[in-house]
């Protein structure tokens, strides 16, 4: 196909004749004057800067007058100016106006009525504020700009409202800032109503829009129109799949964003602002117009671009025009613009011409000219040496699929596949239309073959085609393939819409394929995002209910309810599901077969019985019926040797209390006693003692806040407690003292507490000082507020403020006691604040001061509360064995003194036992918590699971993990998942189990932590068969999927796997270099992995050099594990002198030597300063049992038993625990 040049086409035509298309009638056109030469980028910038000249803030008055005489002044007043401002002379603004030009052509009849023959007016922005208001206006704009930079639209709007309320001068700069904030910060998909309202306000206030205003509004309207186009297309496809008519389509189309953009463009023309519009703005308008085939407005826009002195049409311009005329059915106009492009492309600079040719191909196809489209691809693009992409071929394939010529579409695909070197290869957009066509004609076999090719590619934008294929599979009774599509969607990070999801579930439900239906629910809910779950919750619940109602046995009904648990709102069983379960129970209850059915169909699962009790209480049945069902469930639990958990006992007791049916409640409690009584007399006495002690010295508990803020117990992290005090609530356990209560200043006390909780420590101190010094000095702080404020301030590290607050409180309380005598309430107040000081010092680790306050409490004849004892335990950490002993000692003391335990107290004690691998005591304490009705939270379960995995008790760990997930109070946390994954990484290596827990974490939408990814790396890199590519890919996955930046510990895991396990030093070095390129600073863990690699591969000299580099670059800890590696390495090579030198350079007591820089030592012996031992001597490294073991083993391997015994004797002098010493002694004895 020969395409004429622009010169040939123009031989007998004027410029206006280009637009005599099928869709527009010929109209008279004003011939444009000669277009000036295109300005360079520098010239355009200089002209724009001249238009935006702003008077300097510190310019003298004389300079301003001198400038004003040189320019033409404007006369408009600033908006909202004060009377004083109006009297001031208005500064002028320099103007550089382009030469007036006539417009290019009139719009089509359907276009807005715009007089395009107007003479362009000079570009004159509104005047700046007067000198009086200049500074406030600029400051206001600066505040708006700062608010905009926060990225919060609400902040910008509040600041804008504040400016208007203050009556400050508002100019076009102010409005532009607000409009730009709307444009950039609005939520994607939201209409522009509010933004346009600001523009209307701008006009009402007589603020003239600038060129920037018009450009910003037009761009934003165009972007919004594209959003609407995509959304409408998606909704129409969805409507075609579901058969439902969606009203949203009409609402979106009524926005009329393009019409509003063209109205603004017309106003910009009248004001002369189009002269400074950039070419990309024109292109954006043309692309939107091309979607509608609006040739009239396109002619108008292109005419303005042609007349512009600041912008010139580029390849994107002509591509948009060619597309537009093709959509309008005017192929001749499309070809004319293509010819114009060919004539000008040499002057456009470097660009991708394929887009223009692709547009020409698409235009031919839209006009039904298939042969012409093929000629453009096979002849014109080849002749003009245009890069062939897949885009024009996909257009040809779409055309064939539209007319259902599927064989020809396959021919094109085969042609591409057979010549991969010359032709582009198919992508997802190639196979998508073919798959859609097969789905349209209901050809499952053809669709299945195409789908197999499609899923091998990137299907991230192919949701519609995947959904159509899934629906086709369902219509052809192939539910398994439809469910497989959901899995393919998951891999591509897509998710099925609620309608498709429900159809898949209903497919299996209607065919009584219960297991597959539950698999479908599980798979679908695991793919859906929280937002989609909320949006489709009602539909998915209905689909699950249809499955439940089709079942005839209780066990699968319960299973279906549990599988659908992600649909529960707030972990609460949905009422329809509860009623379905209760209906089944009632059916057997009426038939007197309930007991038999429960015993036969329900296994020994606490979760299932909990679910049934919840359902019965929600159903609001008659009292007798509810009681009968509860008793039957209780009896069935006993037959399965299950004990009702404390939270369920409490819940059911509360239900009966609220019901007000005394007889039913009595009957329930009577039946419950045998099930809840404790066989442990000590636990009974402890519970009674706790109750008695409530009247003596216990205050309102703050354990719930302690639970929320206590840090997660994890294998790698010590338990930390940044607990937050509970709101001040008067304790009912203390007898009322009317005189004391009358002197308490509640308002100032609450203000003090609020300031402390908000981190305003000095403000809190001021409130307290004002309180105790008010009136006659008799005012008292509320004890609970003082307690909580002091505890919080102390835990935040402001111990001086805490001490000051404590002293003022004590002075006030003791002053009261001096006047009125010691009462229970005043004693309790002193106890509260003293206990808070103990907690603060203990959690800071200052045990000496904590002991001072501990003694003060004992001098009162009282003891710390549960949280006080827990804090003492946290602050007195030694080694793991000592911590366990201290934990049990403190526990025994608290129990002996009848201190009421809290969840926080149990969490700390259990965590210490877990660290020492003392599982049995931990399990006993966990059971004790249940008997005492002390609630277990996620931290408790995390500590218990940690104890189990450290002790290798897999069964206990899995049971507790399942119990935790089923707990009504469970809050998703990553720690317990990490504990289970770590167990299967390091103790019982099992990659499948690791991935099982990781997938469950994903299903519950719990974000992995950096430690999670380290465990995944280890799972792939330390278990045979090694999967190093996947392990390495975790570094990019953590950033891409969870926005976690790889840390040194992740690289250390890879280095260890390559270098130590696989003896691949070269790969370990590559990982180390990769880490440095990623700007990750090596830490001690990385150095340990590298040193282990080098020492394990007999590269001791390199290891020594790296050790010196490590000591010089990081502040190494006193841990001896790296030095132990050198002892083993030198020992294995027979270099015992060097090994022992390192051993001697270490210390038993770090307090006996000050740390100093190794590279600054006195260099008396050059050889010794180069040794590792010399560098060890320059830092503090403490010998641990593993150090003695390494040294003994080195001597033993070289048959030097005398020195081995000497090292063992040195170890015995350290008073290590017997079990630890026994391990080293066995090495000596075995020799």
Compact description:
The protein is mainly alpha-helical. The longest helix has 32 residues, at 211-242.
Low-confidence stretches: 1-38, 45-134, 674-734, 1155-1169
Major beta sheet summary: none
Outline type: globular
Distance between the termini: 95 Å
Number of DSSP E strands: 0
Structural class: mainly alpha
> What would you report as the Rg, rounded to the nearest angstrom?
40 Å
Number of helix segments? 64
Report helical residue fraction.
55-70%
Mean pLDDT: 77
The amount of beta strand, in percent, is under 5%
Description:
The chain is mostly helical and 1231 residues long. It contains 64 helices and no strands. Helix 46 runs antiparallel to helix 47.
Could you give the topology of this structure?
Elements: H1 6-9, H2 41-51, H3 61-70, H4 83-86, H5 131-149, H6 153-165, H7 172-185, H8 193-204, H9 211-242, H10 248-253, H11 257-271, H12 279-292, H13 295-307, H14 315-327, H15 331-344, H16 354-366, H17 370-383, H18 390-402, H19 406-418, H20 428-440, H21 444-454, H22 463-475, H23 479-491, H24 498-510, H25 514-527, H26 530-535, H27 537-549, H28 554-563, H29 575-590, H30 594-601, H31 606-618, H32 623-639, H33 646-659, H34 662-676, H35 681-693, H36 703-709, H37 738-743, H38 746-757, H39 761-772, H40 783-795, H41 799-820, H42 824-844, H43 847-859, H44 866-875, H45 880-896, H46 903-915, H47 919-931, H48 938-950, H49 954-966, H50 974-987, H51 991-1003, H52 1010-1021, H53 1028-1042, H54 1048-1061, H55 1065-1077, H56 1084-1096, H57 1100-1113, H58 1121-1132, H59 1136-1145, H60 1166-1169, H61 1172-1177, H62 1185-1197, H63 1201-1212, H64 1218-1230
